[in-house]
Design brief:
This protein has 8 helices and 5 strands; from the N terminus they run αββαβαααααββα. α3 runs antiparallel to α4, α3 packs parallel to α5 and α3 packs across α7. A 5-stranded mixed β-sheet has the order 1-3-2-4-5, sandwiched between helices.
Length: about 240
């Protein structure tokens, strides 16, 4: 008896091929969405943002001081109260270059609202849209710092602060969270484990070992340099 010839079921083949193509397409979509969620994100384009380091930069001094801060961090607030004005004045007189890095390591302390990331993103929004207001916004965020384990400030409250310092143009950027992924990537790339983190000319200070004294010495030196000559101020 002759064996029965088997015919190819082209309908089944066509459906199978379509399923394979669909699965590949879905896999590509999942990969793309994951890349969008975890990638470095949009980098701010601003005259005060360093493209290489991501720092928001003030002053043009030879000595560089980098500070990495989380806007939910109470110790960062204490640091700014103690050193912020001196650092900003030294940058304004070009005695130093002050590089401020908004980072996010304390999202777990804002009841799932991710305040640290949102606030840091808002800081970049203001630096991008209203660079002249960036430092005022930075100071205002610490002046209005929420307590840890609270919900933090809402986007509307961040926008209100921006408007108060003349950065109302940053509103849509803050609402969209434009730089949230950028903040996350910067926090990781700089290997920030705690805040504040301070560097002088690229060397990270061990604050737990008392190396904050190096910053104090630098600021004392700057102060002595910029102080008026008493002999020339007398009558």
């Amino acid at each position: 008896m002759a064996s029965a010839q088997k015919s190819t079921n082209w309908f089944v083949v066509g459906v199978s091929s379509a399923v394979v193509v669909l699965l590949i397409g879905l896999g590509g979509l999942v990969w793309w969405l994951n890349a969008q969620a975890t990638g470095p994100g949009t980098a701010p384009q601003s005259s005060v943002v360093n493209e290489e380091t991501g720092a928001i930069t003030f002053g043009e001094g030879d000595t560089e001081v980098d500070t990495f801060v989380d806007f939910m961090c109470p110790i960062c607030n204490s640091f700014e109260q103690q050193f912020g004005e001196q650092l900003q004045q030294a940058a304004a007189s070009d005695e130093i270059t002050l590089n401020i890095h908004p980072v996010s390591i304390l999202d777990r302390y804002s009841q799932n609202t991710k305040f640290s990331t949102r606030a840091a993103s808002a800081m970049y929004c203001v630096a991008d849209e209203a660079p002249d207001a960036a430092l005022d916004f930075f100071n205002a965020l610490f002046a209005n710092q929420p307590e840890e384990n609270s919900t933090g400030l809402t986007d509307e409250e961040l926008i209100a602060i921006a408007e108060q310092v003349g950065a109302g143009d940053a509103a849509s950027c803050i609402t969209d969270g434009t730089y949230k992924n950028f903040v996350t990537s910067q926090t990781k790339s700089h290997e920030i484990q705690g805040t504040p983190t301070v560097e002088i000319d690229g060397t990270r200070l061990d604050l737990n070992a008392g190396e904050i004294s190096k910053l104090e010495d630098l600021l004392a030196e700057v102060s002595a340099t910029t102080a008026p000559d008493e002999e020339n101020t007398g009558e």
